[in-house]
């Protein structure tokens, strides 16, 4: 869907995206953005996601963790 077409009638593709369709919005023929249904915001039970954590552990995790300092700081506190 071209950006100009989207500007002229944005309500229709938004309704269709809510129903499950996905759109790629183009500018001068190049893909620029995607319009898709919003993701689910409900919580999952552990038994629904447990398989995500069943793989092998990262062998470099401890090494990487040791490279990070233990001090806490506010990332918005720019000096």
TrEMBL record:
<comment type="function">
    <text>Antitoxin component of a type II toxin-antitoxin (TA) system.</text>
</comment>
<dbReference type="InterPro" id="IPR006442">
    <property type="entry name" value="Antitoxin_Phd/YefM"/>
</dbReference>
<comment type="similarity">
    <text>Belongs to the phD/YefM antitoxin family.</text>
</comment>
<protein>
    <recommendedName>
        <fullName>Antitoxin</fullName>
    </recommendedName>
</protein>
<dbReference type="InterPro" id="IPR036165">
    <property type="entry name" value="YefM-like_sf"/>
</dbReference>
<feature type="region of interest" description="Disordered">
    <location>
        <begin position="53"/>
        <end position="79"/>
    </location>
</feature>
<dbReference type="Pfam" id="PF02604">
    <property type="entry name" value="PhdYeFM_antitox"/>
</dbReference>
<feature type="compositionally biased region" description="Basic and acidic residues">
    <location>
        <begin position="60"/>
        <end position="79"/>
    </location>
</feature>
């Amino acid at each position: 869907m071209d950006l100009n077409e989207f500007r002229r009638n944005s309500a229709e593709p938004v309704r269709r995206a809510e129903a499950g369709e996905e759109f790629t919005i183009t500018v001068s023929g190049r893909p620029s953005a995607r319009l898709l249904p919003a993701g689910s915001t409900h919580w999952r039970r552990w038994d629904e996601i447990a398989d995500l954590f069943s793989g092998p552990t990262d062998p470099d995790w401890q090494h990487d963790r040791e490279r990070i300092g233990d001090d806490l700081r506010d990332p918005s506190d720019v000096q």
